Amino acid sequence: MKYAKPLPSYLVQRYQGWKATIFSENKAWYRRLADEGQRPRAFIISCCDSRVHVTSIFGADQGEFFIHRNIANLVPPFTDDSDHHGTSAAVEYAVSALKVAHIVVLGHSNCGGVQGCYDMCSGHAPELEEKSSFVGRWMDILRPGYERVLDVPEEQRKDALEKEAVLVSLENLMTFPFVREAVEKGDLTLHGLWTDIGEGDLHQYDPETKSFKLV
Amino acid sequence: MKYAKPLPSYLVQRYQGWKATIFSENKAWYRRLADEGQRPRAFIISCCDSRVHVTSIFGADQGEFFIHRNIANLVPPFTDDSDHHGTSAAVEYAVSALKVAHIVVLGHSNCGGVQGCYDMCSGHAPELEEKSSFVGRWMDILRPGYERVLDVPEEQRKDALEKEAVLVSLENLMTFPFVREAVEKGDLTLHGLWTDIGEGDLHQYDPETKSFKLV
Amino acid sequence: MKYAKPLPSYLVQRYQGWKATIFSENKAWYRRLADEGQRPRAFIISCCDSRVHVTSIFGADQGEFFIHRNIANLVPPFTDDSDHHGTSAAVEYAVSALKVAHIVVLGHSNCGGVQGCYDMCSGHAPELEEKSSFVGRWMDILRPGYERVLDVPEEQRKDALEKEAVLVSLENLMTFPFVREAVEKGDLTLHGLWTDIGEGDLHQYDPETKSFKLV
Amino acid sequence: MKYAKPLPSYLVQRYQGWKATIFSENKAWYRRLADEGQRPRAFIISCCDSRVHVTSIFGADQGEFFIHRNIANLVPPFTDDSDHHGTSAAVEYAVSALKVAHIVVLGHSNCGGVQGCYDMCSGHAPELEEKSSFVGRWMDILRPGYERVLDVPEEQRKDALEKEAVLVSLENLMTFPFVREAVEKGDLTLHGLWTDIGEGDLHQYDPETKSFKLV
């Protein structure tokens, strides 16, 4: 791997600062986490977006959340094709190996992935329709959500589609036999959230009213 | 989606604390990030493991790092099968849409995914060999790394395989035409890191000596 | 300009070292910053003093902070006399063109400019009272602060005046209509800091208690 | 000063990291600098631009450079109007109080202030012509430089004007009697530099050829 380069020095400086303070203050706990293994309470599925830090929003320290982050916080439906499925592997590990008590899908405003899906489905992004587009093929997962937002006034569709990304993912989670079983036995609960980056608001899905409500 | 449940109250409480403090202190900046879009400097590929918080280690605030997290921080090789590839979609978005300057693959000690791969490859985890195992099929990506650690004394192989997870991912990144092109033009640099959770140490890959060195 | 001389060779040597290391490690990002323009999060007003490096204290890399440095980190009050106002121009550019989210005024211990102001106001530096003294006329900005430290025991007045330099600057910032408007709309927040050079301490102004508190 | 807000927590974290590492390692020296006062070798006049870190380029530690930063690294001509002149005060303090051996004016590529001056002088930025524009009135200092770049091919004028900003400042420095006297006595040397942000190049003014040469 001849292409690897040294870390930029501003990151080295910051790392050394972290080691001398936060790590040093928590050393005993981090050593126990290393020796005894993790035991996270929740599994979070969040977006790669640099503006969404679930650990910050929930004041989570190392050891609390098992976190998968992908474009648009999507879970594909269950398949048995033996292919590489990074998201499905994370779900399986969280539920079957770590036995987390909660799965939280966290969507967010201003999502570039969802914008791409919206543009693609409404015919304005032919490049995302191409077979070779990894983003396009990934966002195909959200196509069923696009159908459902067509009833919504046009200026609200983009936001509605971000919330559909959460719901489609929750629905797809239930297609995994080990998820369904754990949910039905009461060993696991699912939660759907959407956060507004600019306002700092957090909304959660309420199955009673079938809508997202401010927390 | 009738299965969604209300968020546990301890998380609601912490969210409200975050909103009143950290969000409030950074409101103006978060609004600008929402309005103008993200412009992250680096793309981080890290593990889902709850004990590895790259934003903490590097003192990064919202907006700085675009982050993909999956089991064992793996990147699969480039394919053109039009399937759902979450990791490849994240790489494409980071490099082609966001034009990040750095990709950092961050491995870590005590990695459960790598342990699984080790057990599977050494014949001690037949359940991971099964077609239906998402974790097993995902860890197949690391099989070429397993071959390379067989020369290492047995008690060091597990650690060596964690570092191979970083190197295999860097090698696979270079199979993506748009990654290779950006690297060759000098628009993108790759970095391989491995952190020891219990010691708080950070090691980086040095192509000169073909080994990981303490930062 | 016949007076310009070649750079001392120790600086040439260091520059060449920087180019081969730090620049080289960050080249892709620096090129993007050049092509796309800066988007700094904060505007820092700091002293020219060689002992105060705000980028080091906050681990900031190129692109993060827009920085104005003058004697004693002072902001003059708003005027509309069409004269050359370097500080006011920097404030206007930071707020109106760059739309920074934070303005930080950073004062410091052992400040020679503030010492001069103290000596001048207490009658011990007649040379600074002269019309021709640029330092004296610049330090006139801090005269309202001198009035306010007369209640303080004499041996603490010099330190108190350094903190007044921060407060007077924050007050003067609020006399700029575009600053006031951005603050009132929540698009901009102001912060007052004072650092003890010898102790490495950082204090911030707390409006509740009207005093500087250790961070 | 009721408007001051607490420092964003990511900056608090980074500060604490700095204190525990860089400060801690250099404590003895920083204490001496505090007790004995600064004795900087050079006075640097640089731009506020977030992409230009003169301390990084020259590997300067605390105590080495007395630094004034303003929009477009400009020095106004000497005047005796008793007004607030931040730049002139910094020049006076550096030369008369600190007796620096060098003054370095450091210009740079992609300068927003110089771009504004160029647009204003070529009739494309009427808003900068207004009396109330602090940036416009500050950039008036560079008008004599604009006249001199009209001979240059149009596509090179913007770069040429950035270099004129360095030369105009050096010329204006020589209008300060105490600067001229120190230069003529050989106690002070002046240096004109221009750096290309994207390429990391450094050019210095050579009075022999009346041009900037790569260092």
Automatic annotation (TrEMBL), chains A, B, C, D:
Gene3D superfamilies tied to this protein: Carbonic anhydrase (3.40.1050.10)
Keyword Plastid on entry: no
SMART domains linked to this entry: Pro_CA (SM00947)
Cofactor note: Binds 1 zinc ion per subunit.
Class of the enzyme per the UniProt entry, highest EC level: lyase
Named cofactor requirement(s): Zn(2+)
GO terms for biological process, alphabetical: carbon utilization
Keyword Magnesium in record: no
InterPro entries with a match to the protein in the record: Beta_CA_cladeB (IPR045066), Carbonic_anhydrase (IPR001765), Carbonic_anhydrase_CS (IPR015892), Carbonic_anhydrase_sf (IPR036874)
Keywords for the protein's UniProt record, in alphabetical order: Lyase, Metal-binding, Zinc
Residue positions binding Zn(2+): C47, D49, H108, C111
Signal peptide location: none
GO molecular function: carbonate dehydratase activity; zinc ion binding
Function recorded in the entry: Reversible hydration of carbon dioxide.
Protein family (similarity comment): Belongs to the beta-class carbonic anhydrase family.
Protein name per its UniProtKB record: Carbonic anhydrase
